[in-house]
Amino acid sequence: MRNPSRRQKPFTEINTAPFTDIILVLMAIFMVTTPLVMQSNIQVNLPSSKTGQPHKDARQISVMVTSEGLIYLDNKATSKKTLKAEIAKLHQDNPNLEVILFSDKMVRFKDIVGLLDIFNELEIRNLNIATRTE
After folding, report:
1. Residues 102, 50, 54, 124: what is their CA dihedral angle, to the nearest 10 degrees?
2. What is the pLDDT of residues 16-60, one digit of tens each?
3. Where are the domains of the chain?
4. 121 — pLDDT class (breaks 50, 70, 90)
5. How far is CA 13 from each of CA 8, 18, 24, rounded to the nearest angstrom?
């Protein structure tokens, strides 16, 4: 039995174990959901390839061309003229800039050649064309 005349010491420490558990669970949730959120909501039906390999680099931008001929730079609609100006600025800031071209397989080849001309004019040397692997 307890001795009623004896006083208990006040609890002065905070137990951080439950807090740490919650933080770790939240971090795991964010790590799983961030790639899903970062994926584009622009639908592009990529051509398939047997030798394609996934590649991710911090110094890259994505240019998408839809089957309707709409152009997107990092998920923002743009025109060829604006695309050229923005890529020129990004390439000036980072000479090792990598461009990944996501083109619907139904896009006219003439439109792709127009974009390739822009990249060549801006001296973009790191260019990849995205495909869907089989």
Report:
1. -50
2. 888 889 999 998 888 887 766 655 566 665 556 566 555 555 478
3. 48-133
4. very high
5. 14, 14, 21
For range 57-80, the mean pLDDT: 84
What confidence score (pLDDT) does residue 89 get? 92
CA distances from 107 to 20, 21, 47, 67, 112 (A): 51, 49, 11, 5, 8
CB 56 within 8 A of CB 128: no
- Location of structure tokens 């997107």: 72
Give the position of tokens 């609890």.
11
- DSSP 8-state symbol, 103: E
pLDDT at 117: 92
Report the interhelical angle of 80-93 vs 109-121 (nearest 10°).
30
Q: Which fold has domain 48-133?
A: Nucleotidyltransferase; domain 5 (3.30.420)
Closest C-alpha to 86, from 37, 124, 57: 124
Which tokens sit at 68? 């309707």
84 pLDDT tier (thresholds 50, 70, 90): very high
Measured CA to CA, the distance from residue 81 to residue 68 in angstroms comes to: 18
